[in-house]
TrEMBL record:
Source superkingdom: Bacteria
Membrane-spanning intervals of the chain: 7-27, 33-53, 65-84, 104-129, 149-169, 181-206
Name this protein carries in UniProt: GntP family permease
Species assigned in the record: Aerococcus urinaeequi
Keyword entries, A-Z: Membrane, Transmembrane, Transmembrane helix
Length: 207
């Protein structure tokens, strides 16, 4: 049976996302602008989509539950990464990857990408920044470039079942891992890899 529920237009639906990105870019010098932009966008959504919601309490409960779950998921990934870095073999693997031939940003991207399936994007980014950030900065690479490459590379191989991105994708699309794998891989991982290549090339030209 067709769902006749009134839905917002495409333009209205993407407006909060556009506002979020615009506020972060325009006021990038403001301290904690990401938190401010998120709060502003949430308030905007509450006003714009008020007429499309049948159960406001249910939406708030779902949002709170999802936020807590995401926070604990990210925290566990970071904790796992911290434990992993204490293993004797981690130092050997790190030194091997640091000696990779080619630009230093390539080895940085490879390290973050290889860690992401094991500990998730959040854990990989946290581990790379805390354990290797100063090493790459000492090579003359600007800190902001190290951060951007690590963040993008951290999502390059997160197509494993325990990945938060895959779990969210399957939940939203109503697919299981078997049927949603190829779609998640193309939409998420391929996009990250293309972006990573573009950022590394741009950094080589601009810095």
């Amino acid at each position: 049976m067709a769902d006749n529920k009134k839905l917002p237009s495409f333009t209205l639906s993407i407006m909060p996302l556009i506002v979020l990105i615009a506020v972060i870019i325009i006021f990038s010098k403001v301290e904690n602008i990401i938190l401010i932009a998120l709060a502003l966008t949430i308030c905007l959504c509450a006003v714009v989509f008020n007429g499309y919601l049948d159960n406001h309490t249910g939406v708030l409960n779902d949002g709170a539950t999802g936020a807590v779950g995401s926070a604990f998921g990210a925290a566990s990934a970071v904790a796992f990464g911290a434990v992993l870095t204490t293993a004797p073999s981690f130092e050997s693997v790190k030194n091997f990857l640091l000696r990779m031939p080619g630009p230093a940003l390539v080895s940085l991207g490879v390290i973050a990408a290889l860690l992401s399936p094991v500990m998730g994007a959040t854990g990989a980014i946290s581990t790379v920044i805390t354990q290797l950030g100063e090493t790459y900065v000492s090579m003359g690479i600007p800190a902001e470039v190290v951060h951007r490459v690590a963040v993008i590379a951290g999502g390059a191989l997160t197509f494993v079942p325990q990945s938060g991105a895959v779990i969210t994708f399957n939940a939203v699309s109503d697919l299981n891992f078997k049927h949603g794998f190829i779609h998640a891989c193309i939409l998420s991982n391929v996009g990250f890899i293309i972006s990573l290549i573009a950022v590394i090339l741009a950094a080589q030209l601009l810095y």
